[in-house]
Amino acid sequence: MEIKYKHFEIPVNERDLCFFDTETTGFELNKELLEIGAVRAKANTFEKLSEVDIKIKPQHIENASPEALEVVGYNEAEWEKEGMNLREGLLKFLDFAEDTILVAHNLPFDWMHVQNALEKHGFQPTYFYKGLDTFSLGWLLLGDKAEFPRLSLKELSNHFGINMGTHHRAIDDARSAYMVFMELVKLYEKK
Prior knowledge:
By secondary structure, the protein is of the alpha/beta class. The protein has a single domain (14-190), classed as 2-Layer Sandwich (Nucleotidyltransferase, domain 5). The protein contains seven helices and five strands. Helix 5 (134-142) runs parallel beside helix 7 (170-190). The chain is globular. The N and C termini lie far apart (44 Å). It comes from Candidatus Colwellbacteria bacterium GWA2_46_10. Residues 16-190 form the Exonuclease domain. One of its GO terms (cellular component) is cytosol.
């Protein structure tokens, strides 16, 4: 399937940002999405506009990595009650992220899992074809500091005094990525 991105006429500096995070049943691309959390921020001002928390019911939980399920805090009853099927979850995310630039901490992981799921369902992205990575921004601004051996979202959040909520829950990690981004912007402006 050829990937088609739309709305090229919108300049990048006029696009809202969509800070997002995914949780999956494992690292490999054949693993399923369990959650997508996202925070939308206004272009240029970065004012928080809205957020969405999407739980996705896994179809093949038997193929999940037990470690991944433990890290995410997967609870079958919670997902059954609050979750939706993957198709509905993807459509909800595509609607939320329309015309934005995606931003994540370790963007390739989250982007690839979403893209893989979109392709399996025959969906096209509604967001811009380029994104921002808070890991990369952190590396540029803080990568020479010994206190950041991995430049993880947790390390950066702790450094900036950000309450992460429940780490490895998609919405809380999306919120953390947004707040880390805001702190990195402030740090950049001071330099």
